[in-house]
TrEMBL record, chains A, B, C, D, E, F:
<dbReference type="Pfam" id="PF03725">
    <property type="entry name" value="RNase_PH_C"/>
</dbReference>
<dbReference type="Pfam" id="PF01138">
    <property type="entry name" value="RNase_PH"/>
</dbReference>
<keyword id="KW-0694">RNA-binding</keyword>
<keyword id="KW-0548">Nucleotidyltransferase</keyword>
<dbReference type="InterPro" id="IPR027408">
    <property type="entry name" value="PNPase/RNase_PH_dom_sf"/>
</dbReference>
<comment type="function">
    <text>Phosphorolytic 3'-5' exoribonuclease that plays an important role in tRNA 3'-end maturation. Removes nucleotide residues following the 3'-CCA terminus of tRNAs; can also add nucleotides to the ends of RNA molecules by using nucleoside diphosphates as substrates, but this may not be physiologically important. Probably plays a role in initiation of 16S rRNA degradation (leading to ribosome degradation) during starvation.</text>
</comment>
<dbReference type="InterPro" id="IPR002381">
    <property type="entry name" value="RNase_PH_bac-type"/>
</dbReference>
<dbReference type="GO" id="GO:0031125">
    <property type="term" value="P:rRNA 3'-end processing"/>
</dbReference>
<comment type="subunit">
    <text>Homohexameric ring arranged as a trimer of dimers.</text>
</comment>
<dbReference type="GO" id="GO:0000175">
    <property type="term" value="F:3'-5'-RNA exonuclease activity"/>
</dbReference>
<protein>
    <recommendedName>
        <fullName>Ribonuclease PH</fullName>
        <ecNumber>2.7.7.56</ecNumber>
    </recommendedName>
</protein>
<comment type="similarity">
    <text>Belongs to the RNase PH family.</text>
</comment>
<dbReference type="InterPro" id="IPR001247">
    <property type="entry name" value="ExoRNase_PH_dom1"/>
</dbReference>
<dbReference type="InterPro" id="IPR050080">
    <property type="entry name" value="RNase_PH"/>
</dbReference>
<feature type="domain" description="Exoribonuclease phosphorolytic">
    <location>
        <begin position="10"/>
        <end position="140"/>
    </location>
</feature>
<feature type="binding site">
    <location>
        <position position="86"/>
    </location>
    <ligand>
        <name>phosphate</name>
    </ligand>
</feature>
<dbReference type="InterPro" id="IPR015847">
    <property type="entry name" value="ExoRNase_PH_dom2"/>
</dbReference>
Length: 247, 247, 247, 247, 247, 247
């Protein structure tokens, strides 16, 4: 049993609240245990300069934490005047993951801006961001479809993410901050509804890991991600207007 | 009747949720109509360099808006690499207002960091920040008192704020964004529980105003602020451990 | 009697030197006691992007202090790499105040850049900037009229500003730095020639103030501002080519 | 056969030149085909603030590309005034990878600064940086041992890295830029001499990948990394003074 | 005859006004034709970190232009967020030139901050800055001597500077902006009262120059600089308390 | 004899390796003793905004040092977020020097970007940059001529640079870092193949120099520069396709 009464292979309680923000084209508040991330999707009817005239769309993500999302107050990046390396890495990961399940040609010449703002942090903020952002994207695109401005269904598959780690030689699913901070190996996995891998990032900061552990960690992540996708499916209901038909 | 079914002299519905964030020493989510601001108070057991050894404390505030708090997505100041003038002006106002009702000597050699993050914006975010921050400060100081680290009650009085404006020649209390953006005169007033003025900021961007209008606007603001302070009183309950006895 | 032999309700000696800078379309050196501010007005024959095609002009202001304008040398903002909050607040105030008496449609599609550079500071630099900038603007617009490029008279009224404060329970007009730094309440008022208010900014940093004090402070400011406008009138002479006829 | 006459599972020619820079405590120029990275290791006899008094050392890495390392000239990050996300991600990866095989306690209270500067880029610059940096670190530590300032052997194992990718449905080892830019899946693997994984970063930007492909890609990377470590062993000769004895 | 009725070898009219700023330890407004530079010298009773405990002082200079010093308004470097290359080059030149005639050991462990702010520019602002800064430095040091805090006379010699250039194949002394902007060769010379060279910076942007021209330009500059030093001598009067006795 | 067995008037060994970088239109690695600078020339088929439609080209230079080019590791300017004054001064010097021997009209509407990156520093990096950049420029232009895109020969003359300094009252050619750091006078000279001066920058930081010394230093520099140009001539071979015929 873990500190929060979970089994090693158990996710935390997850809640997804759609349409949390009235102004955004799509928005979702995702809560994974005490981690709370507000995800919004904004539609901009143009593409960045490098894609002008290319007949396709773009999706880009920004990530930030409120100063008191963390146990100790974190200085604002706006006050420091620049983004830290961790922030940049996470926002690149979120954008890349969503691009993997989006058909940018079918999105048309528009940009989706994804904003993931961590209201409260307790581990797993980047994976919660991806899981929540998927819901916001679906809602934003559904709205476009309803308004008739989006011609096709641009989404190829569901998308969710979770973490796995080695803590005191035990393999744990969905790490809280307390577990994450003492994990010898830390892995973030992003996966689709059809169990295809999108990102595998396994890191041993002070330790290394074996091929067998790599495989077991991906196995464990998969069980968690399928539960997250089941929740997305339940929360979103029918999304056939934006999801491509599976062959 | 205004667009949202209010009378000219009527506040929007206001809700204050205490302890919204588990990590912060004090926190409050304040909702004024569709405006939602998350206020936290952080206690740091040291003072900035210019006050070292001065035998007193300090309070400072930071303010920010999430990108999709607004109708059109606003670029992050962290991405632009610097704070805008509006942000700086607002965070200076929040800090100054709270300093007016705090006895910094009785606070002791510690710093209160106030963070006001606008989750959703619909006018009046700076005044809602002040009203909500007061609650977060009370809770943070009450916690210090309970832990026995704070010797005295450092708060002199309640504190709240609201806006008043001239819209189409009518004087309105507590402007929504839609009203604020067409107001010819805009005034923000910060006031204490004993009706003392802390800040009066009246501005005519494209118009001017008379002495009589100044007076009437302050009168109208006072009625709103007293209601806000009644709500703070109700939400906070007994705060005698941190509030100085009134002479 | 105050330290510099003034009565409580007395302005410092004020001098305005027109055309101080040969390159600028309009310029004025304003001296208020030991405070010296160089104000220039630059005409640019285009408007910022957000006003393109809107058939109106714009006015914007920048404010800065030379490092040794102050008693202790102040670090340059150019060296620090960013503007401070105080600077931003002041330049927003100057721009907003001038916009209140300018008819931007009659200005035509051009931008007025106001630069207020404090050569020597002894309190009241922001209000001196406004009073001096008005003169520079009049001269710049008069030059445009002479050249025939400006079709109409775009100025609605005279504009000047001064400060009032509570120092040791006494209400003083036009504070020097020494007075300002110990004032419990500090107020800046911007007013037109017809006694209409443009900005009222009253602030109690460590104290609060009553409704009656608010009124008395505005009364006192008015007496000072009318003297400043009398001086502007004298210095400028006939400005009927740029000043709209009063109804 | 690939464009440069290699088999799918074949590394490019690799050369490592030790002591390329006379000033640095350790340095190596690594050439992997046309990719050329200059790696230096600098010893600083102090640790960053967060480790003061912790009785351990630190290692940190910086990465940069010369403007004409690339086919099109790339703007300098110094000229842009900030590091890009890709640079930050790579320097975090290099530092983390080296920390995994370094015993920071045995390093003592000193910092190793790793600089990886790409002189010419043709794909695989981050993995070449890791492979080359290992050699620079060994040389820097060997010098410390010779001077008698380093008490123990702080290295746990050899360390090298390479890339694998899916290009036109074929799995290729050690991608050139031309291959990398059209790869549907891209994986970077960092591994030790005893075949333990340090980092696995698999990314599908516009495609996804299966569990089986993940396994085969790690297999293929392993064959390449073992050849790189054989080269390191040959180039470095006896490193027993800095390498811990294997249990 | 030149446009302003000068001979080729004639300086513009030069005026130096001492003690222009009441707050500064030393200050001088120097006017060279239409060029006006305000120079101040600030004494700080500590040295920069790299000189702590070295038993000597330091002198450093900053240079800036007001936006409307120039014919076209120049954007503020504070607004752009960084100093331009020209500014950095000039402030390095001013500091270096003054260091050449100051005995830093005899200055004691203090820093002289020189600020040169161009109020109006018409060519030769960097050389006017040096000539004016010398006067401000003498006054600041004389004040230190009077207060008894400075033990010795730290100045070795007078210091002044001027420009020379080739314009339409004619060699001109002390270029105005109009001449400078079309000069094929431009030279700035800094020289002491005993005709020793401190800086010679000759530049042909679109042309080159011969050895003979180099010599003639330095000759011509010398005649101008000796006149400037005569003016400094007259303006400053007896400076024996800060000037070392000449051997 | 100097520390490295040179006579006072002797250059260090100089090697120039052409085409060091495969991607660049022109590139040269220049080694002057232990100083090693990689110079590249990039051709961009457009001009900066201020020259659009002016019927001429442009040349601009950037300069940087790798962190371990120096004996002590130097912090990266990209990490600090801004260029230092020394860097800006040097890149302005390199650009200006090359412009003096280039006919910008005959270059056509294109920009030459020169990058000088110091791999290892031992004094004289700015003069080595100029000497090496000339070779890279010739190669880049020769390539343009071969491709037929450049109509005329835009180079007017050879160009090289060296340093001279006063060290312990002795005049030395081509200073190493060890000599440069104790020189009382330091001079950089840029000269053409026909012995015309392009830049003369003589600086006495803590000392001054006489007219006679100025002349002797330029004489000595000339002997060195002619040797450098002889080497350029040998390395480059026939450059008549890009060099204008001498009258």
């Amino acid at each position: 049993m873990r500190g929060d009464e979970r089994l090693a292979n158990q996710l935390r309680d997850v809640t997804i609240t759609r349409n949390y923000i009235k102004h955004a084209e799509g928005s979702a508040l995702i809560e994974v245990g005490n981690t709370r991330v507000l995800c919004t999707a904004t539609v901009e009817e143009k593409v960045p300069p490098f894609l002008r005239g290319a007949g396709q769309g773009w999706i880009t993500a920004e990530y930030s934490m409120l100063p008191r999302a963390t146990e100790q107050r974190t200085q604002r990046e706006a006050t420091r005047g620049k983004l830290g390396g961790r922030t940049m890495e996470i926002q690149r990961l979120i954008g890349r993951s969503l691009r993997a399940i989006l058909d940018l040609k079918d999105l048309g010449e528009r940009t989706l801006w994804i904003d993931c703002d961590v209201i409260q942090a307790d581990g797993g903020t980047r994976t919660a961001s991806i899981t929540g952002a998927f819901v916001a994207v679906v809602d934003a695109l559904t709205n476009l479809r309803k308004r008739g401005t989006l011609q096709k269904a641009p989404i190829r598959d569901y998308l969710a993410a979770t973490s796995v780690g080695m803590v005191n030689d035990e393999m744990l699913l969905d790490l809280r901050y307390k577990e994450d901070s003492i994990a010898s190996v830390d892995m973030n996995i992003v996966m689709t509804g059809s169990k295809r891998l999108v990102e595998v990032q396994g890191t041993g900061e002070s330790a290394t890991f074996s091929r067998q552990q790599l495989n077991e960690m991906v196995d464990l992540a998969e069980t968690g991600i399928l539960q997250l996708i089941a929740l997305q499916t339940e929360v979103l209901g029918d999304i056939s207007s934006v999801m491509k038909k599976q062959a």
